[in-house]
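Below sits our specimen:

——
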Amino acid sequence: MHVSGSDSEMALKKASKGCTILVVDDDPACLDEYCDAIANLGYTVISATSAPDALKQIAESQDIGVVITDVEMPTMDGISLLSEISNRFSLNRPIVTLVLTGHSSLQVATKAMQSQATDLLSKPVSIEQLAEALRRASAYHFAMANRFQITALTKRLDPPVVRGRNARQDNTPTEEELQAFTRMLLKFQHNKSKFFDPSVLTGPSWEILLDITEATLRGESVPASSASASTHVPLSTALRHVNNLVNAGLIRRWTDPKDKRRTLLELEPHAVAAMQRYLETAWKLQPQGE
């Protein structure tokens, strides 16, 4: 099920004002406990006792932007729920997913990250851990909403490179316009090599670096699992590229002092300066209109 364009815009407007958190657990006692804790932290929270119920609520409410789900549930488990959320909704609206499990393992963590979960919380979860996870999720949701909004605005506008005087009636670009657009993309690519070693930024490494840069510009660090999930490649592959960026001296990696199970990433100071120069130069390469 996909939401319409008007529904997407409504979801983005609501995202800027905060979003509703949906907690999914088949244990009523656990569900009440987590909902009470989240409500006491100042968030709007609702609940679902099964994955099908959760999917129905997400489809019906554009307010839901963060989903916290237990792993072990009958009919459909939490990992399957994450996959359904990704397949049905991720292209049209910003939804951040977190996993709760009483049986944390590398296998569960890997499956969760492959299903685009941004955090894995092991039961029992303290109020401090829950608060920190929700802060990260809310910040990530807000960033995602901004990206969706930029994309929506871009589609509305008439980019001069793509839709010039000779554009066809159906807005299909002419060959000349595609050539100009290709030249602009090449400029972006060549510009990158002026600031970074091309041999380091191969495959998903550039996506990881951009994800960490976006967080750095917000003044935040990024969980390694979140940066890896942004690449949409197997977790082991993404982590290998994270290691390459660490070894190249572009990012710093350390253990979260509040949660020893988490690894955090941020740009090294010289990488921040290089990325700032790259972004400023790339910004100037954009067509500014007639």
Q: What stands out?
A: Residues 1-17, 156-167 have pLDDT under 50 and may be disordered.
